[in-house]
């Protein structure tokens, strides 16, 4: 099951956690009750550095758009 704490769309801002997909803050208390997220994104590394959450979101949006354009398979 995917966890928010391992998602590439999650950004740690000082003491709070921000989900770029849903544009909301997530508290540490929500982690134990989290469910599988359809938008979970593994952290992608480029040249040994992880991409930023915004870059992950851009890549995910492009992938979702390309799937919609394919039509029936």
Helix content: 10-25%
Following the backbone from N to C, one meets helices and strands in this order, namely: EEEEEH
Q: In which order are the strands of the major sheet placed? A: 1-2-3
Helix/sheet category: alpha+beta
Shape: globular
Evaluate the radius of gyration. 14 Å
Number of helices: 1
Quick check: average pLDDT? 81
Residue fraction in strands: 15-25%
Uncertain runs are none
- Report the end-to-end length measured between terminal Cα atoms: 28 Å
Q: List how many beta strands DSSP finds.
A: 5
Q: What does this protein look like?
A:
It is a single chain. By secondary structure, the protein is α+β, with helices and mostly antiparallel strands. It has one helix and five strands, in the order βββββα. It has one helix spanning 53-70; strands at residues 10-13, 16-19, 24-26, 45-46, 49-50. The longest helix has 18 residues, at 53-70. The protein is globular, with a radius of gyration of 14 Å. The mean pLDDT is 81.
What labels describe this entry?
5 strands, 21% strand, two-stranded antiparallel ribbon, globular, 73 residues, three-stranded antiparallel beta sheet, alpha+beta
Give the structure's gist in a few sentences.
With 73 residues, this protein is α+β, with helices and mostly antiparallel strands. Helices cover 25% and strands 21% of the residues. It has a 3-stranded antiparallel sheet, with no helix packed on it.
List the helices and strands and how they pair.
Layout: E1 10-13, E2 16-19, E3 24-26, E4 45-46, E5 49-50, H1 53-70
Antiparallel strand pairs: 1-2, 2-3, 4-5
């Amino acid at each position: 099951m995917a966890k928010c704490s391992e998602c590439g769309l999650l950004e740690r801002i000082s003491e709070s956690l921000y989900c770029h997909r849903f544009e909301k803050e997530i508290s540490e208390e929500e982690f134990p009750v989290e469910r599988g997220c359809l938008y979970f994104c593994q952290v992608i590394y480029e040249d040994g550095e992880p991409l930023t959450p915004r870059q992950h979101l851009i890549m995910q949006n492009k992938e979702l758009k390309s799937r919609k354009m394919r039509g029936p398979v």
